[in-house]
Amino acid sequence: MKEQLIRFASKSLLFLVIAGATCVSGGSVYAQSLYQGKFTLPFEARWGQAVLPAGDYTISLGNMTSPTNMMVIRDQKNGRTVAEVASGTIEDSKEGNSALLITTRGHQHVIYTLRLAETGQLFVSDPELARRVREQEKETKTIPVLQAAK
Questions:
Q1: Domain span at residue 10?
Q2: Counted domains in the chain
Q3: pTM (global) more than 0.85
Q4: What is the rounded CA–CA span in Å between residue 144 and residue 9?
Q5: What is residue 145's predicted lDDT score, i.e. its pLDDT?
Q6: Kind and range of the H or E run holding 73
């Protein structure tokens, strides 16, 4: 009886170790972004609550464990997260290249939309500003977003 109990405990422990290893190795798949890109801002710009200084950035869009409309922006030099921006709305778009759409509010540049040609979507972080830009035909600057190599 004692021998059977030891055998059962050994098999249970082995099962738990294998299951744990599978979960850990599978977790890296889920941590990968649905989209990864990079862009260079030639000027300071507000995106959501964050103000991004001029510089080089990477962008990751969602993953399997977080909402697809959460964008994480990192400083390309040091990899530090500088902003997390939730998209207000997601719209379909068949036109244009991948780009950040930027206009001005007062004297400040404001990123109001991320357009991804690869997914055919617009991620609108400031829907009110996007609507006003379309209605007033305000000037929009575009900053190219290049898809990062996988």
A1: 1-31
A2: 2
A3: no
A4: 58
A5: 93
A6: strand 66-75
